[in-house]
Design brief:
291 residues, mainly beta, 11-stranded parallel beta sheet, 10-stranded parallel beta sheet, 0% helix
């Protein structure tokens, strides 16, 4: 049964609350559930979601923080783990999410200032983390073993929005079933991608595109601005192309006329038919190492 959660008045007095990173929070004791009031919520149990489609935990209000306190949410590859649409100031942290199509999905045109911090996402079929909205912060997450979705490319972390910060994340194992494999993808301007570790990217053969970090705008010739600094990108491989598709591979990918500055990145171990590119159209700020 789907439960609807509201912020309890008693929580302010410390009655019936769970404690995690936040000193006072409303406990979530079973899933699936929907949050409809602003506040701080803490997952109090591990949960196994059996829905074929849908969402384990939906955030339907603005100014909500979900702290899983290290608890695990497990679910099938056609559902989403934690999801919010068109809300402001949604934060998801300290969650262990296994399975699902997308582990954490915060999206919609009305989304702003989302934060995704210190989560472990494993075995998502399409994307580990997907966030939309200006001013997003994606920090300190671990995304492992993403892939298996048949009709689209696969990404460990993807973000759409301006003034985005993606910092200190680990993405390991992005294996696309048919199309592109991207470690971290940013669509927007004035964004920074800093101190992330990306490894083990393998594309499918229908569109053999492998990109460690992609920073793009709204169109192919958009003058994207931002920085990519201090990241490590290791071991990418494009599948042998099917039906004559060209191979596109790069440690860092940007659009033509890009104003993104790349500095102090280490990029090694790519094995692709055409050798790929190291910095793409990124402006070389120095200190980059590529083999």
């Amino acid at each position: 049964m789907l439960r609807t959660l509201t912020l309890l008045v008693l929580a302010a007095a410390g009655v019936g609350t769970a404690h995690a990173e936040s000193s006072v929070c409303t406990p979530i004791t079973s899933l699936p559930a929907v949050i409809t009031s602003q506040g701080v919520y803490c997952l109090a149990v591990d949960a196994n979601i059996t829905l074929f489609q849908g969402t384990g935990l939906r955030i339907a209000a603005g100014n909500v923080t979900v702290d899983c306190n290290g608890h695990r949410i497990t679910g099938p590859g056609a559902a989403n783990g934690i999801e919010a649409t068109d809300v402001a100031n949604a934060t998801v942290r300290n969650c262990d999410i296994r399975g699902f199509q997308t582990g954490i999905l915060l999206g919609g045109k009305g989304t702003s200032s989302p934060r995704v911090e210190n989560n472990t996402i494993q075995a998502s079929t399409l994307r580990g983390i997907h966030v939309e909205g200006t001013g997003a912060l994606i920090r300190g997450n671990r995304v492992f073993d993403t892939g298996g979705f048949q009709s689209s490319g696969t990404a460990g972390i993807s973000v759409t929005g301006d003034e985005v910060r993606v910092e200190g994340n680990q993405v390991a194992g992005v294996h696309s079933a048919s199309y592109s494999a991207v470690g971290i993808s940013i669509s927007g301007i004035y964004s920074t991608v800093t101190d992330n570790a990306i490894s083990d990217l393998v594309s499918g053969d229908q569109s053999p595109v492998v990109v460690g970090i992609g920073v793009y705008g709204d169109g192919w010739y958009w003058a994207v601005q931002g920085s990519v600094q201090g990241n490590s990108i290791m071991a990418g491989a494009a599948a042998t192309p099917a039906n004559g598709f060209p191979v596109v591979a790069g440690r860092i990918g940007t659009r033509p006329y890009s104003a993104v500055v790349c500095k102090d990145n280490v990029m090694m171990g790519f094995s692709v038919p055409n050798g790929g590119t190291a910095l793409g159209k990124c402006k070389d700020g120095g200190g980059n190492l590529a083999n």
